[in-house]
Amino acid sequence: MKRLKKFSLSVMATACLMAFGSSSAFAATGWADTPETAEVMYTSISPTSGFSATQYLDSMSDNDYYLVDNTNGSSVITFGVIATPPPNFDIVMIVYKMNASGGIEFIKTDNWNGPGYAEAIGMSAKPGEKVYFRIMDNGINNYNQPYTIQFTKY
Q1: How far is residue 113's CA from residue 45's CA, in Å, rounded to a whole number?
Q2: By the 8 A CB rule, do 93 and 83 touch?
Q3: pLDDT digits (tens, 9 = 90+) for 52-93
Q4: Closest CA to 82 of 10, 150, 153
Q5: Which residue would you say has higher pLDDT here, 140 or 113?
Q6: Among the residues of the chain, which ranges form H helices?
Q7: Cα 147 from chain centre
Q8: Closest to 92 in 3D by CA, of 125, 124, 54, 60
Q9: CA–CA separation, 70 and 21 (whole Å)
Q10: Which of 6, 48, 69, 90 could make a disulfide contact with 115, Cβ separation 3.0–4.6 Å?
Q11: Nearest to residue 51, comparing CAs of 65, 62, 66?
């Protein structure tokens, strides 16, 4: 009986260490965590009509930045971005639009749909403008499942 008790305690301790003391094998902290290291979804230098990525948020403090860069563009681009979380995972998408002078034109937070539902926005960027998309977690979530972000130029 003592042996079974010791074994049970060691299994529980190991499970706790694995759940709370280690990061996911797919952890993404350190990847695209700032506007300066943002993943480029569109650039006017080599324009594309679409972009899609699947990524993990590995903790409540992890942020992923994505960029639509029309700084060298000669015309307005119209596009949509949709971030789709896994079931029961609640994400926030914050949009930062920068004007041609580098000033903030506006900041918008999309966090209305709740766990498991996509956050989306359609907008445009004039020549010289940049738009950053910051994806972050909204509470305690299951960090073993990825979200998907998609950019579509119209």
Answers
A1: 34
A2: yes
A3: 999 988 888 889 999 999 999 999 999 999 999 998 888 999
A4: 150
A5: 113
A6: 2-20
A7: 7
A8: 60
A9: 42
A10: 90
A11: 66
The structure tokens listed for 124 are 């445009």
Q: Given a cut of 60, is residue 20 above it in pLDDT?
A: no
Other beta carbons within 10 Å of 27: 15
Q: Exposed, middle or buried, 84 (CB in 10 Å: 0-12/13-18/19+)?
A: middle
Q: Which of 154, 147, 131 is nearest to 50 (CA)?
A: 154
Beta strands in the chain (DSSP E): 39-43, 50-55, 63-69, 77-84, 91-98, 104-110, 119-125, 130-137, 147-153
For the entire predicted model, the pTM comes to 0.79
DSSP letters, 60-80, are: TT-EEEEEEE-TT-SS-EEEE
